[in-house]
């Protein structure tokens, strides 16, 4: 379970996350939505203890991330897929991650097989497509068999086969009783994957509800329409609008 | 394994799993051996006995720039590639991650420096025969030991500086001119020598017997082991700065 309480983050006077509170329950896929610049990635970095909040708390199973022992066995996160050393092989990238948390090398081989990267395990990510890097990021998230998964834009750069693979994967992970938070700006994808939605705009909570109720409450026939109606006031840049 | 032990093991995988490690450390060996061999060939055995250390350390003192580049790029790539966020997610304790990184890198550099120094010493011995510095003399052992410690500490110092500056390019832009100029120029300018002689790289010239106390131009106001002490202080200060920077700043 992820509990975010009154979370606020200011960077040099600019508010990125503003008194945000929500809870991500286990056993279902929770979609994390918001326009670009809404604070999704900042919120995720705060949950993972990478950035320090100005005020408020973010707890994983009741404890701040920094206090977790062997955190990879509790939380798996996919951040930017580009954030790997271009000349370190997929196997060695996962191996050093495994070593940090005392995980066996056999786990590295398992997640490589699970993400379809076994054949390119010895290759450097320099030669990988964005989709393969995403798979490597997912492999890293699954490494410690964690009960909480946080995936930031996991379908970015994936081909249709990869999109379906991610969709089935996150649904399966949730069905296994894990807590799954998936951020995305792809509404159609979220409508197919997420049962529950947390929607933010300009760092504030706009909605925390089931996907069905969200669409109904914002009088849209699709998630996209409902989303546009709700976030229309909080987007930073709009096409065709002079600033 | 302890949490710190696990983190060190992980950092060692990082160091050994990129090709640039083998390339830069190979280059370090090649520069040190090549230059020392050239100096040894033109060595004139007529001078004082400890002149025989010159061919050994001339190559090492120049090759230290390559070793420093290795230390800086190894740490800098962690920031430039964004791997630092994966590292901190896996090892949330900033102090533990820094300690593990510096331990793995420091041990790698200490091993490389020891092997290359021994190889250079052997090469010079083969080249100039009996005129070579004898291993039975304390001043030879002292210089070899001091040179090894100097190379290792200077590299750790620069690695810690990279953590503070978070960039390979910025760190090297600051360091290389300082390491070049103050060793080979500024450190000997009378007006700034009282201060400049305590810069971290200056210690190497004293420790490696590239200068002797009392020399009017190149002499320094301290001896070899005081020099090591000065470098220990610089390294400790840089490590503290790196720790403070990692704790204070967002990833």
How would you sum up this structure, described in words?
The complex is a heterodimer of chains A (243) and B (251). Chain A is of the alpha/beta class. Chain A has a domain of 67 residues. Helices cover 33% and strands 25% of the residues of chain A. Chain A contains 8 helices and 10 strands. Chain A has a 6-stranded mixed sheet with strand order 6-7-8-3-9-10, with helices on both faces. A 4-stranded antiparallel sheet of chain A has the order 2-1-4-5, covered by helices on one side. In chain A, α3 crosses α4 and α7 packs across α8. The relative contact order of chain A is 0.18. The mean pLDDT of chain A is 91. In chain B, 75% of the residues lie in helices and 0% in strands. Chain B has one domain. Chain B starts with a helix and ends with a helix. Chain B is an all-alpha fold and 251 residues long. In chain B, α5 runs antiparallel to α6.
Q: How much helix is in the residues of chain B?
A: over 70%
- Structural class of chain A, by secondary structure, is alpha/beta
Largest interface summary: A-B, 35 and 28 residues
Biggest sheet of chain A, open or closed, and with what strands and sense? 6 strands, mixed
List SSEs of chain B in N-to-C order: HHHHHHHHHH
What is the rounded Rg of chain B? 19 Å
> Kindly state the mean pLDDT of chain A as a whole number?
91
How many H/I helices of chain B?
10
Q: Provide the low-confidence segments of chain A as ranges.
A: none
| Percentage of residues assigned to helices of chain A | 25-40%
User: Span from first to last CA of chain B?
Assistant: 27 Å
Large-scale geometry of chain A:
globular
Give the tally of β-strands of chain A.
10
Structural category of chain B: mainly alpha
Per DSSP E runs of 2 or more residues, the count of β-strands of chain B stands at 0
Ranges of chain B where pLDDT stays below 50 over 5 or more residues in a row are none
Categorize the overall geometry of chain B: globular
Number of individual domains of chain B: 1
